[in-house]
Structure formats: structure tokens, C-alpha cells
Amino acid sequence: MADFPIEAVRGKFPALALTDKGRRRIYLDNPAGTQVPQAVAEAVSRCLLTTNANLGGFFETTVAAQTVADDAHAAMADFVGAASVEEIVIGANMTTLTYHMSRTLGRTMKPGDEIILTRMDHEGNVSPWLQLAEDLGLVVRFVPFDEGSWQVEEAVLQKLLSEKTRLVALNYASNLTGSINRVKALTAIAKQAGALVYVDAVQFAPHGLIDVEALGCDFLVCSAYKFFGPHMGILWGRRDLIDALKPYKCRCSSNGLPERFELGTPQIELMAGLTAAIDYFADLGAAAGGSGSRRQRIAKAFEVSIAYENALTRQLIEGLSDIEGLTIRGITDPERLGERVPTVSFTVEGIAPETIVRQMNGENIFLWSGHNYAWEIVHQLGIPPEQGVVRIGIAHYNTAAEIGETLESVHRMVAMLRQQR
């Protein structure tokens, strides 16, 4: 933790210095969206002011805009470990991309084919497949997560697979429990059954190095605004597979890759911000002693940030565990911090999560309550979806002092609310 350059990191994020009527802000709403470095905002602005044109022409701004788009695809290829920029599809957000890809994949399916979903996923990786199944007469099977390990277990998935399974959709990390699934092992089991594997890495991407080649999956999606970038989504698809797919698109638009999956005019200025966000990771890796390619420097950034975040997560979990009647919904074993991201959700017996969050928001501690689109998780756990949980989400720009203030606030709020009952 001492080796992480926290002050230098915080200096890159202007939002962290903002105050409201003299009161500091503590951003622990990061699972819903992180703040951005100055370089990201500057890249977006610079693109709008100097290279603002559509693609496909021969004059200066359109040529420059194409360079912005090409750079963004190359940066994302480095970020996820893709073999080719042609495997990177950039779009509005993860959910929109998943709806689009689900319909495209639906063209390869027939009534009676089976899809496996998990009870651990964000709704953005559930509803598109449920609605596809409804449209096409597919069979949906759900694999629950284990409430002891907080992960999807390989043996449980294995039992649901059959010769009719066409696709397994699963998440890398939960946006409610924080648990990380063993995606490589789960993918290998699904592939042995001949199924495609679609991975939602939205919550994992800010907290760990993605290597799509090593995972062995067919698709992986994430969102730039969860890893210090602009509001947009990215899909990686294995090249031989996406090259064979026929997407829904305009008749006269490009049939090239990845263009045939990127509908309409792209968000060119946000692509500039995407490249800047990925370069932020590379710069962090270089500051931590990393060298070599951008991919290698990104890997170094995650090496140091994971260690830093784990220390904050340990501090948070230990502090919350002191509160009687408080239940953390996820991994709490300090020996298993490497199996979770720093998103910690909890409930308190007899107190509505929103009541706690409203009080803490009033102290400029930013966090969320509710189901947070983890619809299947709250139902499996028997948590009323209209209440959900209190969710605290750490990013590597947070500090131990902020976690300390947050814990003091939780303790005080719970004690106060209990007295008022």
C-alpha cells in the first residue's frame, strides 16, 4: 500500500478536489461509474474542437477523426489482450451492445436450443437473453451462485450443460457481492459442451487485468466509464466467430470488421477519451516501475492497484464487521480478497438501506442503495428488491482516510437510526 503513488493519482482527477459548501466529497459510488482523469476530459474536448467530423472523407478533420477511432480500437485491444483491432467493437454501452449481439447470435439459433444464465449477473447480461429466448422459443436455464463461496461453481454449471446448450452468459465479477468468478475454468467446461461463452467484465475491468486469449471465451464486454473513461461500451469478439456472423445493419454500411457491428456515426470524441483512459493505466504502470509495451505497463498498473485496493477493502470489511446486526453480502475472509473486487454490499437488520444511504449522502459520502440491477442476486438471497443493499465501491483513487471516515459514518448512522426506532 505504501508503494502506491496515491497522491500523484489523486492529482490527476480534478473531481476529487471539489467541495460543496466547504465540505469534501468521498466518491464511493464507483461501481456505478468512476471519475475521470484530466487527460480524459482534455482528449474529449480536443477532439470536439479540432477533429470534429464524420468518418470516410478525404479532408483534414475526417482523416484526423479516423485516426482517433483507430487509436481507440488499438488501445482497447491492448487493454483486453486482443489479437487484433478487428475484434474490438465500440458502442453506446454494455447493455446496448449485448442486446445487439444477442439478436445477431439469435440468427444462429432455433426453437428448443438452450441458453444458460447465472443468478449472479447484472441485468444487462440477463434480460437480452431472456427476451431473445422468448422471441425464438429457446430454453433458459439458470445456474445459481454458491452462497458459501459467493461464486458460480464449475460442478453446478457442468450439470446444466447439454448437447442443446448454445450459449453460456456469465459475469467476471458481481456488481453487488464483488465476487470474482473463475471465468477461465467455467469457460473451459462450457466450450467442452460446444457452447459459446459471453462474459460481462464491466465490474472486473477497473480492478484486474483482462486477458481474453487466456480466458478462452468468445465474447467479453465492459464499460469505459467504470474504468475512468467516458460513457461508452466495448465488446471484444473472437475474430473467426464475429467474421462469420451477420449483424443487423444498414444495407449500404460497411461489411468490414469491426465497422459492421458499429451502427451509425461513432462517438468519436468519446473514443478519444477512451484512449486517454487506457493511457492513464499505462502511465500509472510506468510510474510504478513498469516498462515495455503499453500492455505490459497496463499489467504493472493493475499489479500495484490491486494490492492497494485490497488493503482498503480489508479495512472496510473489518470496520463493518464490528457492527452488530450488519451482514456483508459477499466474501469477507481476508485470505480470499484476491477473489473479489473492492465492492462491498451490506444490509442491517431492521434498517432500510436507503435510510442509511440518504444520511451518508447528506455528509457528502457518495454511495448507493437498492438492487443496483443485480436483480437475480437479491432474489436468490431473499433480499426485498425494493430495498436491496447498501453498496460501497472503492476505486484506486480512494484513501484509507476516506474509508475511515466512511466507517465512522456507518457506525454513527446505524446507532442513530436504531435509537429512533
Concise account of the structure shown:
With 421 residues, the protein is of the alpha/beta class. Helices cover 41% and strands 14% of the residues. This is Cysteine desulfurase-like protein.
Please characterize this protein's 3D structure.
The chain contains 14 helices and 15 strands. The chain has helices spanning 6-11, 38-50, 60-80, 94-106, 127-136, 154-160, 183-192, 212-215, 239-244, 268-287, 294-320, 353-361, 375-381, 400-420; strands spanning 19-20, 23-24, 26-27, 88-91, 114-118, 139-143, 165-171, 196-200, 219-223, 233-237, 326-328, 343-348, 365-366, 368-370, 389-393. It has 421 residues and is an alpha/beta fold. The protein is globular. The longest helix is centred in the C-terminal third of the chain and has 27 residues, at 294-320. The strands form 4 sheets. It has a 7-stranded mixed beta sheet with strand order 4-10-9-8-7-5-6, sandwiched between helices. It has a 4-stranded antiparallel beta sheet with strand order 11-12-15-14, covered by helices on one side. It has a two-stranded antiparallel ribbon with strand order 1-2. Helices cover 41% and strands 14% of the residues. It comes from Mesorhizobium album.
